[in-house]
Amino acid sequence: MSESITLKAAAEYLQSHDNYYILIHQSPDGDAIGSGYGLCFALRLIGKKANVMCSDPIPEKYDFITSRYEPQRFTHSVTISTDLADTRLLGKALSGYSDYIELAIDHHKSNTGFADKLVLDSSASSACEVVYEILTAGNMQVSLDTAICLYTGIATDTGCFKYECTTPRCHVIASKLMEQYNLPIGRINRTLFDIKSMERLKFETKIISNMQVYLDGKCAVAAITLADLERYDVKPEDTEGVASLPMQIKGVEVGITLKEREENKFKVSMRSAEFIDVSEICAKFGGGGHTRAAGCFIEGDADQVRMKILAAIAPIMGMDLWMV
Amino acid sequence: MSESITLKAAAEYLQSHDNYYILIHQSPDGDAIGSGYGLCFALRLIGKKANVMCSDPIPEKYDFITSRYEPQRFTHSVTISTDLADTRLLGKALSGYSDYIELAIDHHKSNTGFADKLVLDSSASSACEVVYEILTAGNMQVSLDTAICLYTGIATDTGCFKYECTTPRCHVIASKLMEQYNLPIGRINRTLFDIKSMERLKFETKIISNMQVYLDGKCAVAAITLADLERYDVKPEDTEGVASLPMQIKGVEVGITLKEREENKFKVSMRSAEFIDVSEICAKFGGGGHTRAAGCFIEGDADQVRMKILAAIAPIMGMDLWMV
Predict the structure, then answer these.
(1) N or C: which end of chain B has fewer CB within 10 A?
(2) Which residues make Cβ contacts (< 8 Å) with residue A135, sequence separation at least 6?
(3) What domains can you pick out in chain A, each with its CATH number?
(4) Contact B69/B37 with Cβ under 8 angstroms?
(5) pLDDT in tens, A203-258
(6) What DSSP character marks residue B228?
(7) Percent residues over pLDDT 70 in chain A
(8) Interface test with chain B among A176, A194, A292, by most B beta carbons within 10 Å
(9) Cβ–Cβ contact A123 with B under 8 A
(10) Under a CB-based contact definition with an 8 Å cutoff, are residues A86 and A114 in contact?
(11) Beta-carbon neighbour count of residue A148 at 10 Å?
(12) How far apart are CA B256 and CA B249, in angstroms?
């Protein structure tokens, strides 16, 4: 298990070492990218060498972050992770670092304790919030680049301050970042949440019209097979964000999105509205996450996977499976 | 023209009078409802009599506000408006009050100065922000009911803190309201932004698949005719929020939604991304609003209305109409 350290101790650690690799999880989202790059920019600002490493390419929509970044050349010395709950999420290209992570900065209560030292704040909506608090605790400057990154992560993980996980502190940090730099939040948020290609829009309309509800209307399931991706010419990385679609239906408590990653192997994303802890359900399938947003992998065809999930959810909702 | 008064003077006015009618605009949105009811609850808390008046029924989705409200019986004495830019927006049932509004609380720079006294803060994202500042200036208590209302208006007019009009102050006010009462923001925001009936979802997929782009892809137009409403069994009040749909398309600067209100009479909603002041365009058709969100009424069939608008926008974008 990791040694838990304070925000201040983490800041001191970062200030007293050098030559960092910052690892983030595969299929990186706004919080992984924001926390990794935001920390990287902050370290470079105090004269450290630092690079961000990810097994997968950073999606194009985050160009407004990656265009501010160039990898540096240096002899690697210290390995950190941000927003990484489990080294299994590093992906193939980075799996070799699994046993050598010195410091993990995270907000997942499910963090497996893989790092030597861990700063974990599970009350934080995002890893970016934790990075912000570390920088503040260490009197480290937040540059414009870092501000854009941290805003991005907080906005991503709170659904732009929409979800229950949004705390007063999220709003206070956002106000401070915005005040300091007059951040172009309109443009950032349109990029993060609104702007879609015509193809993606049409793909979404297809997902919505194929969505099914189960368990007395409390469970909605959307399935995206490899055949669908091919038919609509959508890359797997372009399916980010579709997990929120089933939650739009009135009366739905648990929204489930099945994305086929390899033949008969589905990445399952679960969201809940108010009552069900979906991280518990996903844990039954070897996954994890947060109370209102979690994920796992399940094998089988779409029908089999759906039945496995509904069978796990029905008793939690106090229902018999025959209601499926 | 109105006499402009300070936040503190407005608070003193409210504290020294009684028996209020608070008027809000027809087709009420979250900010009209939030500011009207929020102020009403605050006035009742200091022992005043107050009712909210609207020409149209309050949409069902705002039950979480209206369920906290009962009309009071009293002899009406003072008439106030919140979020009302122009008395023409009062609608038929309230038009008789047009010349008798003593105090207007607003954030529209286009306010026509119809009231005796006016508290106008055009830098405020929402009328709810102005109401919050008045209550603060007058040391008036914000109850849970008022907090829910004011959060609703700020969230509505900022697109849940997503749009450019979101200021650091919006975030600070949200954090204070949330801190004081542990507001159920997850539930409120799902109701405001996410939850839709299956019918509405299917209606949206229809609007999206019929959307057209013009002017080199910079302009997207969605049209909803009376025949569409009938075909999809959608009430006009259930079309709130569709104005944001055309803005989703990559590359679009101006998104236009045409809603047929009477035969050959369209309510036009315009949104812009970054550059075009749509309130200026709508003003040409006798409408108004904000830089990034405005509206007007235009007569004609859908094709005629679309051409009138594109002809007005093309030169502003430095384009010839033949590009339409």
Answers:
(1) N
(2) A11, A42, A141, A142, A146
(3) 3-193 (3.90.1640.10), 198-319 (3.10.310.30)
(4) yes
(5) 888 898 889 999 999 999 999 999 988 888 887 767 777 888 999 999 999 999 99
(6) H
(7) 98
(8) A194
(9) no
(10) yes
(11) 22
(12) 12
Optimal mutation site among B166, B200, B221, B275, interface A, most CBs of chain A within 10 A: B166
Type of residue found at A134 = I
Q: B147 CB contacts (<8 Å, ≥6 apart)?
A: B177, B180, B181, B183
Across A71-75, average pLDDT: 98
CA distances from A117 to A24, A81, A100, B308 (A): 16, 11, 11, 64
Report the alpha-carbon distance of residue B23 to residue B15 in Å, rounded.
Answer: 18
Amino acid letter for position A123: S
Give the residue among B195, B189, B105, B196 at the shortest CA–CA distance from B148. B189
**How many whole angstroms separate alpha carbon A73 and alpha carbon A87?**
25
pTM (2 decimals)?
A: 0.88
What are B55's two structure tokens?
């020409």
Q: Which long-range contacts (CB under 8 A, 24 or more apart) does B98-106 make?
A: B101/B23, B102/B78, B103/B10, B103/B13, B103/B14, B103/B78, B104/B2, B104/B80, B105/B10, B105/B35, B105/B39, B105/B80, B105/B81, B105/B130, B105/B131, B105/B134, B106/B81, B106/B82, B106/B130
Rg (CA), chain B: 20
| Cα–Cα distance, B224 to B201 (Å, whole number) | 15
The Cα–Cα gap between A201 and A194 comes to 10
Positive or negative, the CA dihedral B285, B289, B290, B292 is negative
Q: Find the radius of gyration of the CA atoms of chain A.
A: 20
How far is it, in rounded angstroms, from Cα B66 to Cα B90?
A: 19
Q: Reply yes or no on whether the pLDDT at B322 is more than 70.
A: no
